[in-house]
Amino acid sequence: EGFGGRDRGGFSERGVLRRSVPHWLRGPELRGLVLGFEEAARHHGGGGALYVRLRRR
Fold first, then answer.
1. Could you tell me if residue 27 is inside a domain?
2. Smr domain: which residues (predicted)?
3. CA 15 remoteness from chain centre
4. Cα–Cα distance list, 47 to 8, 42, 54, 55 (Å)
5. Is residue 3 part of a domain?
6. Does residue 12 lie in a domain region?
7. Taking the model in full, what pTM does it have?
8. What total number of domains does the chain contain?
């Protein structure tokens, strides 16, 4: 058994969220809520984290 179910028929490739989250944030469902996003500073997680700027309501 792998972490997160990877070896049990779950995610078989690495970096699924790294590729998917930016696509979701640009998608029509979230486009009206998200002003922008960028990779976080190294001390905040670097390539494994994003800063997401949200619109005010």
1. yes
2. 1-55
3. 10
4. 27, 7, 20, 23
5. no
6. no
7. 0.69
8. 1
Question: For residue 31, is it within any domain?
Answer: yes
Residue 52, domain extent? 17-57
Cα 36 to Cα 11, 20, 27, 41: the distances in Å are 27, 15, 12, 15
**CB atoms < 10 A from the CB of 41, how many?**
10
Which residue has tokens 């989250």?
A: 21
The residues facing 51 across adjacent strands are: 38
Tokens of 44: 């905040």
Q: Which token pair is 25?
A: 């944030």
**Residue 16: how many other CB atoms lie within 10 Å:** 13
pLDDT per residue as tens digits for the range 15-29: 899 899 999 999 999
Distance of alpha carbon 39 from alpha carbon 48, whole angstroms: 8
